[in-house]
Design goal:
This protein is an alpha+beta fold and 212 residues long. The protein has a domain of 139 residues: Immunoglobulin-like. Helices cover 17% and strands 35% of the residues.
C-alpha cells in the first residue's frame, strides 16, 4: 500500500467515526440498572435523614434511589413550587411480609395524594433494613401523563417525606424540600466509545502527512 492510499483510508476511517459520533443517540447515556448515580442530595429534619441519588439513563429515563430512616413508607415529589399542593409524588416501601410497593400519586392540596390512573413509575428494587428503607425506581423524563410533571430540561423542587408505617398516612414533621429547583435531566455524559479511536485515527493522519 502506497502512502497516498494509506492516507486516503485513514481519512475515510476518521470521517466514518466522526459521522457516527454526530449521529442521533451516539452520545446516549448509560443503560439503566448500573447501580451508580451521577448526582445526589442529602436532607434531614425532625431527627430523621433522607437522601436521593439519580442519573439519566437510556437517553430519556430518570433513574433514582431514595433512602430514608425508618421502616415505613418513603416518598419523593416533584413540584413547581416549594409547597405540597400540585406535586407529582411517588411512594414506596416494604411491607411486613416482605412484599414491596411503589405508587404513582398526585397531591392537589395539603392532604393525602390520590393514586394516578396511569402508573408511570417502575420499581427497580426495594430493601428494608433495621433502621432504614431504600427504594430504586425509574420513570420517563416526560411520561406524557397530565398527573406527572415533565422533567426534561425543566427544573423542579424535590419534596421528600417519611411515614411511620407502611400505611400511607400523614407524615407529620418527617418531610422536607430542596433548597432550590433541580434540573433532573442534567446529568454528566460519558465520552462516546468511538472517541478514542477517532482521536487515534486523526493522530495517525497527522503523523503520516507530516512525514509525507
Amino acid at each position: 500500500m502506497n502512502m497516498e492510499s494509506f492516507i486516503k483510508q485513514i481519512s475515510l476511517l476518521a470521517m466514518f467515526l466522526l459521522s457516527s459520533l454526530l449521529a442521533p443517540n451516539s452520545w446516549a447515556l448509560t443503560a439503566c440498572g448500573s447501580g451508580s448515580y451521577a448526582n445526589s442530595e442529602a436532607f434531614s429534619n425532625s431527627g430523621v435523614s433522607f437522601s436521593v441519588e439519580w442519573s439519566v439513563c437510556a437517553v430519556d429515563t430518570l433513574e433514582m434511589k431514595m433512602t430514608g430512616d425508618g421502616t415505613g413508607w418513603i416518598g419523593v415529589g416533584f413540584s413547581e413550587s416549594s409547597s405540597m399542593p400540585n406535586t407529582d409524588i411517588v411512594i414506596g416501601g416494604v411491607n411486613s411480609d416482605g412484599s414491596t410497593y411503589l405508587v404513582d400519586t398526585w397531591a392537589s392540596g395539603r392532604s393525602s395524594p390520590s393514586v394516578d390512573v396511569s402508573q408511570d413509575y417502575t420499581l427497580v428494587s426495594a430493601n428494608e433494613f433495621a433502621s432504614s428503607t431504600t427504594i430504586e425506581f425509574t420513570r420517563s423524563l416526560n411520561t406524557g401523563d397530565s398527573d406527572d410533571y415533565a422533567l426534561d430540561g425543566v427544573a423542579r423542587y424535590l419534596l421528600w417525606a417519611i411515614g411511620g408505617s407502611d400505611d400511607i398516612t400523614y407524615h407529620g414533621g418527617f418531610r422536607g424540600i430542596s433548597a432550590t429547583a433541580i434540573d433532573f435531566s442534567a446529568s454528566p455524559v460519558p465520552l462516546p466509545a468511538g472517541l478514542p479511536l477517532l482521536l487515534t485515527a486523526l493522530g495517525l493522519l497527522g503523523v503520516v502527512r507530516r512525514k509525507a
